[in-house]
Amino acid sequence: MVRILEIAQLGDPVIRERASEVTDVHDLQLQTFIDDLLATVAKEQGMGIAAPQVSVGKRIIILSPKPNARYPYAPTMEPTVMINPELIWASSNTEKDWEGCLTVPGIRGLVPRHVGIRIRYHTRDDLLVESEYNGFLARVFQHEVDHLDGTVFLDRVETTHDLVTEHEWQKIIAQRPLT
Prior knowledge:
Blueprint: H1 28-44, E1 48-50, E2 60-63, E3 80-90, E4 94-101, E5 104-114, E6 116-122, E7 128-134, H2 135-148, E8 163-165, H3 166-174
């Protein structure tokens, strides 16, 4: 039976720890955990989620963007499980855009991220995949991989003037054209 997992909040020590590599993707407990993580990101309407966000210090993320009230401009992507993900190339150009986090509710920040990236990861079936992402998907990947290294988006903002409450951010995106 699939379980919805509790989201760890900023201040929980697991959020600031480096997650450990997954050594056996075929482990039955790991596969069950992945199902729970998929159910949790769907319920929370996250663009993605990392295992440390549910208090599990393993290098697993899920990218799962789709438009919703929090991110009306997000692209739609089938939930993608990434085990031991790594960034293998990043463009030199960066762009600031708004980010929020299930682990840091109520706050948004303008975060600079690489616009284009090349990544490598294992699937839950242990296939090695290399892929390239640009724009929003590149941003989500970088955000989630940061969680695996104990970093949250607040660490990446250039100034505290780039932080707003969720309420103020809703006003900002209401004025933003959908792209």
